[in-house]
Amino acid sequence: MxxxxxxxxxxxxxxxxxxxxxxxxxxxxxxxxxxxxxxSMDFLNFVIALSRELGLDIPESDYSKxxxxxxxxxxxxxxxxxxxxx
Amino acid sequence: MAEFVMPSLGADxxxxxxxxxxxxxxxxxxxxxxxxEIDTDKGVIEVECFTSGVIEKLLVEPGxxxxxxxxxxxIREDGEAVAAEAPPAAPQQERIKISPLARKTAESLGVDxxxxxxxxxxxxxxxxxxxxxxxxxxxxxxxxxxxPAARMRxxxxxxxxxxxxEIPHYYLGTSIDMTSRLEWMAAExxxxxxxxxxxxxxxxxxxxxxxxxKFPDFNGWWTDGRFVQSPEINVGVAISLRGxxxxxxxxxxxxxxxxxxxxxxxRDLVQRARSGRLRSSELTGPTITVTSLxxxxxxxxxxxxxxxxxxxxxxGRIAERPWAVDGMLGVRSVMxxxxxxxxxxxxxxxxxxxxxxxxxxxxxxxxxxTD
Lengths: 86, 371
Prior knowledge:
Chain A is mainly α. In chain A, 56% of the residues lie in helices and 0% in strands. The longest helix of chain A has 15 residues, at 3-17.
């Protein structure tokens, strides 16, 4: 998946959880939890939504890699590019 | 015949608007089945039937706003014979206890006594209540009834002001070493798919529910001048809403749920609270409230009890702290917990034991039950 498509996907999942957020207002390198006011349940739902959509198992130890919009795109892009099991 | 009335879905609710009937006259209903939708300050609430039978009559049309206690429908309970045709029952309203002088003052000041909570003996509305209500009315602009956030803020203001006015709160705090419990959760989550993972908030609810089994004097309501202990442990969970405001619906019979069932119930409750689809039993049922503000970076929470409940447990953030274990100083994950309790029901000694039990459950390495 192209990075732009991944970015749109991440934004769509975030705004699905926080519909009041203007996608244009998300600052790419700022912490998503504080920026969008995501609590643990919201964040877990965000991870579940990405996991289902992309068919990826995202371990809890990787949650920190989904802390910003940019880092989420980087992480998901790397994971999708890696062969399964790596 | 059973009467189905506009329920009171919280200490702050005065009226609700019937949005829709989900049953017609002549249809069977079961206890717990959702039969109506009502618009309140807390969003759209699905109202469950409290008995099983057949809908005899629907007395209020969708779109009507009616006070709490208004008769909405009549249900012929299982085993009852079909009633002979009778004139429609007039909507019932609770008799207002007010002196003639206070009633006259209310009329002259344009205050509706039905919307005032009396502070006199037996809840009687006094002259002072009327004057206070009139002063408040002139001082504060009425909330924009079309703005749900303003209505909710008004409802929260009423409930919290009542709590601080009526409930003699006492507060206790403690620090809890959460390390073992968090390690257990991390190990569990490692084995689980993302859909089945736990969050630490559910461990807090679990601990409070279990502690209440040993300390039932914190589980119930202050009603008619005395404490009524609840046979069920229904843990209200404070959930902030994305548009502002909060609700604290209950996870019913939380003490009987495994931690997995609690997680599922919590996830469902948050989702429905934020989409405005709570059920009446979840709003009328809480026997205690749990609030956690740790994710907002808050160290300690000293909450306001939601009347008529008699206790609220607050949790702050989990932070790494220096902590002595067996004479050795180490770094542990430590959280502040607090208890706000009603001094009419319990005292500090009892509160301390309750809080210590919560701390014990959250700090011991033993694992909560899972399914």
